[in-house]
Each structure stands twice: as C-alpha cells, then as structure tokens.
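Subject: sequence -> structure tokens, single chain

Hey, anyone have a minute? Need the predicted structure for the following. Not urgent.
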Amino acid sequence: MAPSLTDSHCHLNFELLRNNLPQVLQNARDNGVGHMLCIGVTLEKFPEVIALARDYPNIFASVGVHPDEQAGCDPTVEQLVALAQDPRVVGIGETGLDYFRLKGDLRWQQERFRRHIRAARLINKPLIVHTREAAADTLQILREEGADQVGGVMHCFTESWETARTALDLGFHISFSGIVTFRNADALRAVAIQVPADRLLIETDAPYLAPVPYRGKTNEPALVRYVAEQIAHLRGVSVAEIAAITTENFFRLFRAAKAV
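Reply:
Had a minute. Here:
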C-alpha cells in the first residue's frame, strides 16, 4: 500500500466543507489522505474544531486566533494554554502577521502573535504561522520570543528562499499549498526544490486555494495529492516518497498527534 498523504492545514469546520463533511472525508480517503489538521482561527469557533478532532481519530486540532480576526475574543496566554491542554490539540495557531489585508497601526496584531508564541512555549506544542507581506517582522518576533524552542510551520508558504532559510534556521518547517501549482508561481517552485526533505510539509488550506486543475473551485483535503504531485515532479522523486516524507515530518513536528 502506498504511504498515505497528510493535509497539514485545512478548515473542515468552515461552512463550505462542514455542510458536506461525509463526502469530503470519503473523497480524502479515496485520494489516499490519511490524516488532516483542522486549524483554529477564532476562539468562538474552536468548539467546532475540537469536536471534529474528537469525533474522527485521523483529524487533529489546533487552537489560535488568526491575525486578521478583529471582531472576536483576543486571547490571553492563559486561555490558549488552557485550551491547548486537550490531547487532541497538537499545535498553537493559526497565528502570525498579515500586513496585506490589514493596514495602519498593527501593534495589536504583533502583540497577539507574541502571546501565541509564549503559550506555545508554555505548553510545548509547535506553532502554525501565517505571514503575508510581513516576513521581516514575523521572523524578528519569532526570534525575540524564543520560538525556536518549540518550532513550528510556516504555513501556505509564498515567501522567498531567504525567508525560508531563516525560518529553517529557527527550527521551522515549510508547508506548500496549491499555490505551488499556479502558473505564475515559478519563484515559489524554486523554493520548493530547495527546502530540505526533513522540513517539508504539504497542505490545502481548504476550502481555499484549490490547486490546478481545480483552481477557483472549493478546495478540500483530497486535493492535497496535487500539491504532492507537483513537488514530486519538481524534486524528481515519486509521489509515494513525498507522501512518506511529509507524513513522517508531520508526526515528528506535531508530537501530540498519534497516527491511526
């Protein structure tokens, strides 16, 4: 049997997937996807995320508040640590910085990011980091807060090799989404070739960013195989090898996750 794929970042509780969840999970199985990490983006919706992880042994959860979220609860370190005590929670995030969607004085966003890093260090679980047009500040805060003590993943990576190399030096993994299949993503494909095999992850970010040939449609974990196929092609290896490497990396990074 071929090694199973792992979708290291998806949002199964979002309406586009939740409303068709049995079929979404069957599609994943049919496409060789064995495990999924459902990412928390608000505390208000965290009960949905953890419920999925409790109901399905091959789905894991994270807890965090996305840097773009402004309306809901802004978590304390203590709140994050308390929720992350659940054994089905394997990471802290999605957290980070986003200077693309939000403008102006974003010190509140930076402080939220710092609280997530501090919580990750206290609970000893890795970080799931979002960065968009904020690479320098993201890396600086990771360094200042000692994020190298827990490591994590730069999810849906779209930055330069220089940014990737600095993140790797901090002990982070680099995760590629369907963007690596897009026609104008040559620079990103060059990064995907260079990332060391033991730091490579793949994801969908479903329901967003469906890979070619499904670009513009609703994404789902089943389509992570197209990310694996693209990276396998770029690196001159088999899809089975990419599946094995990225799944092994996932379970080594997310230590609280148990394979089923």
